[in-house]
Amino acid sequence: MRFPRMPNPEKAKHISQCLELAVLLEVSTNKPGNVNFMVGFQGTRIEHFLTSAVAAAPSFEEAAHRGVAVLNKQMRIRDVGIGEIIKNCASEINAWQKGGNTLLGTVMLFAPIAVAAGMTSMNENLAFDIPKLRQNLKIAAESTTPQDAVHLYEAVNIANPSGLNKAEDFDVNDPASKERLIRDNVSLFEVFKIAAPYDDVCSEWVNNYPITFNEAYPYLTEQIAAKKDLNMAIVHTFLKILSEHPDTFITRKAGVEKAREISLDAKNTLELGGLKTVQGKKSINELDLKLRKSGNRLNPGTTADITAATLALCTLSGYRP
Q: pLDDT tens for residues 217-227?
């Protein structure tokens, strides 16, 4: 379902551009264990991620338009359809590239951010007040519906991400789950509550993005201010998140002990200076090789998604490279 275009299309376009830039900056950085310009995964290369960023932009703009409509009291927040936006975005990404799942976690984090930005006023410099945006983000996430949950399940089926284990309840691969979501009136927010203990993307949703806002965003802005080297700032932010939060994508594929081991490696790498020192660079290279063993089973995908969301806050707050 497509809603008619609402007033202030320039604002929605601006938000979309900010989010597209955030994705492009994140995927273009040489983060250990991730696809970059130098190395890819089997069947998935940097061009698939770059294409996905462009393909996702219209959905980000649509989400922002709906947020603007809520701000102008032309739409109820529960009618925004965040689940539908995520599903349409997954479909567009799938249609534009053949590299498999590239951005589902990032899109799941970005869709409510785009809506919340639409609900938030910009200043004369086209920047958003981040605390106010976060307040609106909480409202947007908590206002989702059972239909949003159904659309999210359909988005997962379209993207077909790896590492999905069978859930005890409302399993995404069980066709009966979607019927139960509607029958039992289970919203997308409530589904993410169930998944939050083992998936940090879902945990960010239900807890108002604590890693993104409280930890990663202040750290990234400090890194940018101190180093004036964006690649270093992003890599260090990625390592900082990974060092303090064992990656739940790794946990699902390789177990919690292996995820904790990788977090300790990331912490050690930062303590050695990261990209600032010879020892730190050597440690990053060693970590990169370790993460790429066994068919990239140790890819810190969730950490990359949260890093992208952190960059989204930077671009929305007015940062430009």
A: 999 999 999 87
Vertex 14: Cα angle to 13 and 20 (nearest 5): 85
Contact 239, 248 (CB under 8 A): no
Note whether residue 119 is domain-resident. Answer: yes
Q: 41 - beta bridge partners?
A: 44
Contact 311, 26 (CB under 8 A): yes
d(CA 225, CA 165): 41
Q: Are 52 and 103 in contact (CB under 8 A)?
A: yes
Residue 27's nearest CA partner among 248, 274, 235, 260 is 235
Tally the domains of the chain.
Answer: 1
d(CA 96, CA 13): 20
DSSP-derived secondary structure letter, 101: -
Polymer length of the chain: 321
Tell me the two tokens of residue 266: 């990331």
How far, CA to CA in Å, does 40 sit from each of 52, 163, 173, 289? 15, 18, 28, 12
Locus of tokens 């790896």:
162
Q: For position 167, what pLDDT does the model report? A: 63
What pLDDT sits at residue 58?
98
First to last CA, the chain: 36
Please tell me the distance from the alpha carbon of residue 47 to that of residue 30, in angstroms, as a whole number.
14
**pTM listed for this prediction:** 0.94
Domain around 197: 9-227+311-316
- The set of residues, in sequence order, having a beta carbon less than 8 Å from that of 126 and lying 6+ positions away, is 14, 318
CATH label of the domain that carries residue 145? 1.10.4200
